[in-house]
Amino acid sequence: MHTLAMMGNSFGKATVCFEPQGKKIEVEHGLTLLDAARIAGVGIRSDCGGRGICGKCLVVVKDQKGLSPPSDNEVRLLSSARLKAGYRLACQSVVEGDVTVFIPPESRLEARRILAEGLSRWFELDPAVRSVRVVLAKPSLLDTTPDFERLFNALKERGLGEIKIEHELMQRLPTILREANWNVEVILWMDEEVIAVERGSGERGVYGAAVDIGTSKLVLHLVDLRSGETLSVKMAENPQLVYGEDIISRINYAAFEEGGLARLQRLVIEAINSLIEDACREAGIERDRIYEVTVVGNTAMHHIFLGYSPKQLAVAPYVAVVRRSVSVKARQLGIKVYELANVFVLPNIAGFVGADAVADVLATGIYESDNMSILIDVGTNSEVFVGNREDIVSCSTPAGPAFEGMHLEHGMKAVTGAIEKIKIDPEDFEVEYETIDGAKPVGICGSGIVDAVAELFRCGLIDERGHFKKSLNTKRLRRENDAVKFVMAWRDETATGRDITVSERDIQEVLLAKAAIRAGIAVLMKERRVKEEDIAHLYIAGSFGKYLNPESALFIGLIPDIPLDKISFVGNTAIAGAKMCLLSRNMRKIAGELSNRIRYIELTAHPDFQKEFMNALFLPHRNLSTYPTVMKHISKNKGT
Amino acid sequence: MHTLAMMGNSFGKATVCFEPQGKKIEVEHGLTLLDAARIAGVGIRSDCGGRGICGKCLVVVKDQKGLSPPSDNEVRLLSSARLKAGYRLACQSVVEGDVTVFIPPESRLEARRILAEGLSRWFELDPAVRSVRVVLAKPSLLDTTPDFERLFNALKERGLGEIKIEHELMQRLPTILREANWNVEVILWMDEEVIAVERGSGERGVYGAAVDIGTSKLVLHLVDLRSGETLSVKMAENPQLVYGEDIISRINYAAFEEGGLARLQRLVIEAINSLIEDACREAGIERDRIYEVTVVGNTAMHHIFLGYSPKQLAVAPYVAVVRRSVSVKARQLGIKVYELANVFVLPNIAGFVGADAVADVLATGIYESDNMSILIDVGTNSEVFVGNREDIVSCSTPAGPAFEGMHLEHGMKAVTGAIEKIKIDPEDFEVEYETIDGAKPVGICGSGIVDAVAELFRCGLIDERGHFKKSLNTKRLRRENDAVKFVMAWRDETATGRDITVSERDIQEVLLAKAAIRAGIAVLMKERRVKEEDIAHLYIAGSFGKYLNPESALFIGLIPDIPLDKISFVGNTAIAGAKMCLLSRNMRKIAGELSNRIRYIELTAHPDFQKEFMNALFLPHRNLSTYPTVMKHISKNKGT
């Protein structure tokens, strides 16, 4: 093609081969080995950003004919023995001909450890956004290639294909290129769109943010996309709380109040913008260096965030607007980062199994294990998964907010003063409790109420239907206005000056919630044809999980009767999954596959759900034979 | 994939094979053959829009086992002999199983004749925008596929791949689908983006507009994208004229005046919006049914229209912002058609060989001919092409506006009262002229001035350098303030009450303009190594061409000396090319290839240009041997 020949700049080309990866790439003369490695997608460590200071980008080149001679920095940092053995610094070695490069293990940047609360997973650092430095030949009468094609051809030489560019950026391109004297840093999204072109320095960094929109809490992680490092973590209450604590009230407000959707959307976006501002201030970076945002949330939060009416989520058959991931420009949503940054919202599975649930599965990795796992994300709505690499089934159970401490007379969130652990002496029914931060008790939070029910049952204070055995004689058990209650903390111990009690009504709330989750697990286990003994792992996600006593959870029959060492509390896997999608295109791809692959079981339409729900309303379960661990205890108690 | 199985609706599938095209497609039962043909991209005529009235969609089906029995309409419209012979109406025949369909020639819609002024070309009607009617299964508890995936799956069954959708349309999708009761018409762009979803009726039509932004004139064609028919043609002056008649003044205004670019862009877009409004009113269609706009213009007009600064076009090395075609949403530009409609701006070739020139080449088809052609688009800047299917070279010559009647003492545009034809009697030098609309003469337009110079030269009134032979005695030749002039029309004949003259200065202007074009042709012919006798066609495009006398053009040496029957005037090929891109994706593809393939020769940097220019300043040329036809005349004249 004569036109290409006319456009080509005058640099020569060389082939660089990276071992042990076996990746080959053709690059222009004049690039460093570090540049070449970045283009080839081969990870080489570099802490100083390629300035020849840190000495981390050590490589071995046996035949150095195709390289520039060692620089002063290399001579200073490497011993003469090492230099003789072929060691070089990738950032200092300039390609001048064909060369084969060996990357020793200590220099490899193959995988990054992501540490979410409670779990860690390995994956290759390969974010959707990356920066490429290009130096363009200046136009001349003999090379009048237009600005965009000049940039495009330079990117093509680095192995990139068709490239899009936003209208406004194209409008600014001529000025940017000339002000930068044709030496620019190009920010690419998914290697298919140029989202920014800046004066080439590479010093200002490339950042991203992962956001979890919980019904009650927002979490944001600010991440360095070049290193994978988390720079700042920020949390805030979801400001939509004033329009209802539960999802259904929010959906109703958004769907049926004039301007409701827009108002709720604006609230959450403003809150996210504040978190971004706080995180950037803490990390000392500029907001417009955030080039990508990933977002998870349950389907209702997802819809409201994107300005989709959640109306259909409230009425049968609970149909979402979209399942697949959604990519929208930040400015279309009003997210205050770089204006052409992309906001990637993870895919969901169904009306009540949202992007946060996909993130849970992604973060725990249950989809790639041969072993069978159960994953429960406990919240206002709890999502349950049962499966392994072959097949995963999921459901959503409207467990109600009992486990978040709501709808209980003395219930509260897991904040300072909440009773989070309870022990009852089976002899004298005296109570030992622990509160968050060791403060005077204010109420009982989710993990406390699970302990309470478990202990009352273990001590024989309540029967298998959750009713107090009124024959027992203890001053802690008393009747108030027709309601039977058990005093957990006496008024003189509490911060409120009132007795903190657990009533029969409270216990019924907990039983309804646990029965919904337990029935969901049962239906899914049946669907996957697995029994308790087949379960290798049980993951409990959500902040509730952090404080839960697994023994109590098992004792009340919230989870199946499996050995306690198989239970893990994995914390906020939603944000962990969102962050993984920020750092890895492969994880993003897997998320898409999961959203298609994971089967959704609509419990209300499932023939077994009612029966399983009724069975699970018992403590621990109507079929006691499925809870041998608990049975042993009960019979032991009966024996005394 | 279990999820897909769950989503699929309950219709069966059948294979429909179209002959003689040999195209096979799998479709749902229940579609008509006309639907199937549209999906398969096989053109079948239908004037009534599939209502079984016009009888144009006649097909022959030998084995009708896979079809519904003939409808009442078919029985009424087709003779029993035809029915027996297997004739059916495609719009009435419903697919119920595998079927092979023969489309007789009279029903084929394989190609459409595009009639631009002066030329016609055949191509398959295959616009970037098409509408697809889909009837979706309603969601149920057993099929909770989200709205977008429901639509996506239906389109996938019609053979479409990944589909994008704009954020706002996704927001509106749930409401649209439910209000339409799941029976919708989907407007697709390039089969890759859903740009509109509407209540399924298909009655409202799918339209497009082609726009030519000339430096002085705007032309708009409103087109029915289903039939290819042009519904309305509108023209207007380019309102940017008040900021300078020539391109350089506009570029300077846009590049250096505060807010200049935005002002010029707004002017042209407002003018286009008026044309759209007028055209829609004339055709009786709604503006928001225009789903695609194609635009051509020279590179400066292209840049200003898109809001790109044309600054670099004014200074060496004359670099454009972009060469390839540009697609922008109409609303990003403020074009008042359907807001998510795409505006497709044709690619250009170089700073002064623009999208209009690509359209010229496309419309004349010189790129697919084995024969060698010359194509000249005469304007303020003239573009010249020389080549054939193998290779085309191009250049731009700053011919100046002399051929548009400007910069001449009595020059004017080709409007009412302009002298457009001139004959001078070689004996008594008396003048015969014709004016546009036969009105009293006001001035001389481009074709008139070419005639004038040719006639003055033919009659020996001027020499080969364009100087009057002062020795000749005629009262029409006179000196006014040191300037020698020839009177073409006496004051008592004119509308102005003044003599209309042609001065030596005017003749020099014409010579400069013609020499620039002629030198361009010469350089390109040399570059392509062709001689006069190799030229099979010479196309003259631009409105100037319509009135030009080819003999005069040859006589003054504006074009090479070739037989007159090889010369065609092809009118506004720019708008013709824009319309072809509106109606055919293939033409769009070819336009892209042409913009890459056509070599651009920068004349000012070419070693031969100066010499050729100097040679062409003579009448007809310094090397008289290259103009045997003219030589014969001159020697004949000299002989008398």
Overview of this structure, please?
2 copies of one chain form a homodimer. Chain A has 640 residues and is α/β, with parallel strands linked by helices. Chain A folds into 5 domains: 101 residues, Roll (Ubiquitin-like (UB roll)), CATH 3.10.20; 71 residues, Ubiquitin-like (UB roll); 139 residues, Domain of unknown function (DUF4445) (Nucleotidyltransferase, domain 5, 2-Layer Sandwich); 160 residues, Nucleotidyltransferase, domain 5 (2-Layer Sandwich); 98 residues, no CATH class. The first copy, chain A, has 19 helices and 29 strands. The first copy, chain A, has a 6-stranded mixed sheet with strand order 14-13-12-15-17-16, sandwiched between helices. A 6-stranded mixed sheet of chain A has the order 28-27-18-19-20-29, sandwiched between helices. A 4-stranded mixed sheet of chain A has the order 8-10-11-9. In chain A, β19 and β20 form a beta hairpin. In chain A, α7 crosses α8. The longest helix of chain A has 24 residues. The N terminus of chain A is likely disordered. Chains A and B meet through α5, α6 and β29 of A and α5, α6 and β29 of B.
